[in-house]
Structures are given as structure tokens and as C-alpha cells.
Amino acid sequence: MAKVIVKQLVKHKTLHNNHLKQNKFTVSEEYFNALEDLVITKLKAELLNKAFKTNTPKNYFNNLENQVLQKVKQPKKSKIIKLLIPIAVAASLLVVAVLSEYKSNTESTISKNEIENWLNFEMVENTALDLVATQTDLEIEATFFETISNEDMVNYLNETDIENLLYEN
Amino acid sequence: MTDENLLVQQLKNPKLQEEAFRKLMQLYKERLYWHIRKIVLSHNDADDVLQNTFIKVFKNIHNFNQQSKLYSWMYRIATNEAINFINKKAKLMNVDISELQHKQVQTLSTDNYFTGDEIQIKLQEAIATLPQKQQLVFNMKYFDEMKYKQMATILETSVGALKASYHIATKKIEAFLKNN
After folding, report:
1. One digit per residue, pLDDT tens: chain A, 169 residues?
2. How far apart are CA B24 and CA B1, in angstroms?
3. Do residue A40 and residue B18 have CB atoms under 8 angstroms apart?
4. B177: chain A residues, CB-CB within 8 Å
5. Helix axes A29-54, B43-60, angle to 10 degrees
6. Nearest chain A Cα distance for residue B123, angstroms
7. How far apart are CA B140 and CA B99, in angstroms?
């Protein structure tokens, strides 16, 4: 068929051929039946979309990106702040507690005069035995006694006046 | 009042608009579809363009001043929509229009919605080699057998220029078919 047509073209130098003029594009039968509903639906959707757009505030879409970015950045800061706040409160309470304790301690100090009076009039005999009894936390090195021999101790006592020892202590 | 004038009035009336629009589509959908299809070749593309055409007609009906026939006005909208569609598609694919059309013709042999034989595909290949406006003139005259006067209204070109354009187009196509 094609060769026949080309021969005709060469011979007659014309495109006016019924075969060539046939429309060979096709379409399904249902296509045209559904077209009106499809176009009307599309048109209504466009008009509805336009109506929504006109109800949004001016510059809404222009500012939207910046607003969203600001909100996205904020949670990181607030998280840190949320963690610091209880710590700061606890620290403040601790400081207050310590300060109040210190204050209470300082309020109960005895005056100098009172101490002197007590020492002069109510002091008990401050013997060596009393000192040892009270100073229980004193640690005397064990080696101290080991290095002093008995002979040395006797010599020392003979050489030293006992009454002076009493007065010194 | 003619039927067309009445239809236009109804289209401009918000209360009667939808019904009139459905009637308009019933009257002209097939003619516009085949005109668009010859330009874009693919059924899916033709469907997109046809829908866009009718939507544009609906939105701009208030601007139609009836200086031309309603069908001529719609045909012009369909032509512009089809050409814009092809241009946009070529740009998206980063190819020029002739390359795009050549690729589309290549797919016709496997297209379920094209039943043409080898020579008819060759004819489409030959048409695709023409400049865009010559393609339009050729399709409208050769396949649609449209009068030059009506073509002049649609394409906003003089009858003389259209005749010259068609003559050149046919010569190029004949040469292509003989050489290929």
C-alpha cells in the first residue's frame, strides 16, 4: 500500500490522496461521555480553591516560612531553660539553707566578758587528769614513750622541782 | 436572536451558566479535541489541553465580544493552549520543539490510539519537520478541510499568507515522503 501511494506521489506530485487524508488517531468511546462532568468538577474545584485563597490574610504565605522556622528553633532553647530552672531553684534553696544555718550559729556566740567571768569564778580545777579526760581525741604517739627510758625519767624528776611542775601546768 | 447569541447570553448569566456551559461542551468538544490531537499527537496530552481550553473559555466568556463566531474564538484558544503545552513540555524535557515532536511521532507505531500504517506515520513525520505555524495551516486545510477565511479569523493571518504557507508546506511534505 505504502509503495503504491509513494508511486502516486511521485507520478502526480500531490498529497491529495484519500488514504493519506484519513484520520488514524482514535479515542475510547466513553471519553467524550464523561468530559462535561470532568470539566465542571475541575472548574468548581478551581473556584473553591480561589475562594479559600482570598480568605487568607494578606502576606500570609510570604511570612509563613519565617514563622515556622522561628517556632522550630524555639524548642531547643526552652528545653535548656527547662532543665536549668529546677537546678537554679535547688541551688538557691541550698544557699539560703546554708546561710540561715550559718546565721543561727553566729547568733549563739558567747560574749568575751561572759567567758572571762566563767573562767575566773566558775572554773574547775584544770588538772592534767581533767585535760586527758576531756581531750579524748588527742593522739599521743606511741613512740614517745618508747624513746624515754626509766632512768631518764628518774633523773629528770630528781633534777626538777615538783612544785614548779605543778605551777607550770 | 440566533442560537449562538442566545447561548452566549446564557453563558454570561450566572444562573444559567452551568447548563449553558454543558451545552457548549456537547456541541464543540469533538471538533476541538481532534484539532488539538493533531497538534499534540498523544491522547493524554490532548485531554489535558481540551479541559484547559474549556476552562479558559468559561473564565473568559465575559470578554467575548462576538466580533467573531463563538467556534472561531474557541478554536483560537484551543490552538494557543496546544502550542503552549508543546512548548512547555519541550522546555521541561530540555529539548527543542522539533526534537520533541520527532520523538512523539516515533511512539505512534506503538500507540494503542493510532491505527495508521507506515505511510501514514511517515506523513506525521513529514508534518513534524515543518515550522509550527505551517503545521497548523497544513492540518487545518488538509485534514479539517477548513475554508481559508475561517482559518484567517482563527490564526489572525491574511488569506493570501495562509495560501502561500499551505503551498510551501505541501511541497516540503511531498519531498520528504519521496526521499524517505
Report:
1. 556 666 655 554 467 777 888 888 999 889 999 999 999 999 989 888 877 766 677 788 788 888 888 888 765 555 666 677 778 888 888 887 777 765 655 555 566 666 666 655 554 444 444 544 555 454 444 444 445 567 777 776 676 665 555 554 4
2. 17
3. yes
4. 6, 9
5. 50
6. 8
7. 22
B34 touches chain A (CB under 8 A): yes
Q: Rounded to two decimals, what is the model's pTM?
A: 0.64
The secondary structure of chain A in percent helix, strand, coil, rounded to multiples of 5, reads 75, 0, 25
Q: Do B115 and A26 touch (CB under 8 A)?
A: yes
Please tell me the distance in Å from A79's CA to the nearest CA on chain B.
46
Query: Shortest Cα distance from B24 to chain A (angstroms)?
Result: 9
ipTM of the complex as predicted? 0.85
Residue with cell 490552538: B79
Residue positions counted in chain A = 169
In whole angstroms, what is the distance from residue B167 CA to residue B162 CA? 9
